[in-house]
Write a structure and sequence with these properties.
Two copies of one chain form a homodimer. The first copy, chain A, starts with a strand and ends with a helix. By secondary structure, chain A is of the alpha/beta class. The longest helix of chain A is centred in the C-terminal third of the chain and has 22 residues. Chain A is globular. In chain A, helix 1 packs antiparallel against helix 6. Chain A contains nine helices and 14 strands. In chain A, strands 2-10-9-8-5-3-4 form a seven-stranded mixed β-sheet, sandwiched between helices. In chain A, 36% of the residues lie in helices and 16% in strands. The first copy, chain A, has two domains: 108 residues, Aspartate Aminotransferase, domain 1, CATH 3.90.1150.10; 239 residues, Type I PLP-dependent aspartate aminotransferase-like (Major domain) (Aspartate Aminotransferase, domain 2), CATH 3.40.640.10.
Chain lengths: 355, 355
């Protein structure tokens, strides 16, 4: 495969693969593999420190915000967040705008009350709800910034009187926003951060320690902060890959620089889609995601033919999620503009022949 | 470094490092890195299936036992086990025989009652308590089979009327025991299984579903079983390394074959220690671990001199844990007998000159 449009785990820069591969054989000329070094040695401490510090720089975080690399995936955050932030008789507000948005809504009621302030389920999550009220007494408001499956994205940060909590798994570090507005941000690493097996959590320490329940050590953000994000043996290699990839992003000019390229990629693909009636984007224009572009065709045979053509041309990960069908093209940071050019050329060619 | 005696993350076979390194560049000749393939593709499904099946074969598991690769480390199991197996008004029995044994004892009371049936804390955990009674009404009995820090190991499986739960992080797959006697076995992968960032859980499905509390999805073993150990994005690369290492162990002849070599390594090291009065093993003879060999010297200056000598000779991971001091030599499956020979030769040489 030559072009990787996977939704996650997904493409990373070639130099990251090369450095990570070398680290498995001989890490920093120690004669040891990154897989066999102690996690409490200066060797690994340097990796973790650089990864945390680079996140801090790339996101322009203030001193209230702590950077943690945790086990368990974003799915663990679905319950860890209410466990830490939602008291039994308190209430949290959730926005329901995608398959991934419904999952935390199912976990939170184990810990307290929840109110779903709006949902776009009525139209298969093809838009972002605009008119909703966040109750001022909510412990927090939770939403998903980018919906990987449906290809919608919230382009501005909602104004809210309550602490803001966001799942940014599929668009973190892809665009400049004021990350300091958030009380808690989480993201599975396997898209724009690094390798699967680790989750980035950025938390404003001022929201912690306010619930009355006892929290198991591994689920207590405060314990992770106290222990410098090394409460137990961390996922060493996954964090190493994050560090390499974050270092790469910083060298590209950071979030501000990659955002320009991400905009070019998304513009090129959406403009092509809009110019070719054969392809039908499923999302309303104003809520289209710049990370995951979803479209279908009217004719299942045409869809199959285009899918086969993409495979022939060495393209991976173009098939849509089963809940939407059609196609999903992921445009994460490491995907070069050239891959989108080749895809859009193929779409034009296909439309000329078959449209 | 040429000889790696690290306590974990620890040495793995060279061929595993080479294959894992290659997989990061080009996995199974797909042209894609193992880090950028979808976890729900046949490509990764094959890796996960082989890893789970090889565990099943190596441990000779019966059909009641399920094999899971989970996030979170053994430290997550410290609370996940009582969350799944211990009702609020029920009682669980724990054996306290090391620093790592005390940690689950601290987490379990959040979920129910616990009874510590015996402790060897009185002598800095330098022995395994022998005379204790497990209450017949306990929901389960929990113990640590091998104490990584203190270098003790329980050489037989305790007879008990209640479900047996064991932390086998530092001696799993190193010796033949009847794994089917256990209701739940867990082990961080970073010693004898593979790379840090994944935890093996082997659970007898008959003990599940008996507590009344609601369990968050990611913490519910039944949900992981239903989803074939892929409830969310798994730690792909860490599982890949486990699969490669388990495949290596199977090719060596499995647990029974590696046990013979492990016995040779431990015998050689303990015999050398016992023959050289300069070195003082800290553990009573009958409870000595075959995985982690702990010893001290009477004179701190001698200790420093020997530590320096080991470093000069390219030996990593020989320094003891701060709670015991002295030295700790870990003899995990991938450590060749030749490394122990070189170490014991060095000890003899040092004792001749300095003893």
């Amino acid at each position: 495969m030559k072009y990787n449009f996977n939704a996650g785990p997904s493409i990373l820069p070639n130099e990251v693969f090369e450095q990570a591969s070398q680290g498995v054989l001989n890490f920093n000329n120690t004669g040891l593999s990154i897989l066999e070094i102690g996690h409490r040695t200066p060797l690994f401490q340097g990796v973790l420190d650089e990864a945390r510090q680079t996140v801090r720089e790339l996101m322009h975080l203030n001193a209230d915000h702590e950077v943690l690399f945790l086990h368990g995936g974003a799915t663990t955050q679905f319950f860890q967040i209410p466990m830490n932030l939602l008291d039994e008789h308190a209430k949290a507000a959730y926005l329901d705008c995608g398959v991934w948005g419904t999952k935390p809504i199912k976990e939170a009621p184990l810990f307290g009350q929840i109110e779903v302030v709006a949902s776009s389920k009525d139209k298969n999550y093809s838009y972002i709800p605009r008119h909703f009220t966040i109750p001022a007494d909510a412990a927090y408001f939770h939403y998903t910034t980018n919906n990987t499956i449906e290809g919608t994205q919230m382009h501005c940060v909602p104004e809210t009187p309550v602490p803001l909590v966001a799942d940014m798994s599929s668009d973190i570090l892809s665009r400049s926003i004021d990350f300091n507005k958030f009380s808690l941000i989480y993201a599975g690493a396997q898209k724009n951060i690094g390798a699967a097996g680790v989750t980035l959590v950025v938390v404003n320490k001022n929201v912690l320690g306010k619930v009355s329940r006892k929290i198991p050590s591994m689920m207590d953000y405060r314990k992770h902060i106290e222990n410098g994000s090394m409460l137990n043996t961390p996922p060493v290699f996954a964090i190493y890959v994050c560090m390499l990839n974050l270092r790469w992003l910083k060298a590209q000019g950071g979030v501000e620089a990659i955002e320009k390229i991400n905009n070019q990629k998304a513009d090129l693909l959406y403009q092509t889609l809009d110019s070719l009636p054969l392809f039908k984007p499923t999302v309303v224009k104003e809520d289209r995601s710049k990370m995951n572009v979803v479209f279908v065709m009217d004719d299942p045979e045409q869809e199959k033919a285009f899918l086969d053509l993409c495979k022939q041309e060495g393209m991976a990960g173009v098939k849509g999620h089963r809940s939407v069908g059609g196609f999903r093209i992921s445009l994460y940071n490491a995907l070069p503009l050239s891959s989108v050019q080749i895809l859009t050329d193929l779409m034009k060619h296909f439309a000329q022949k078959r449209g």
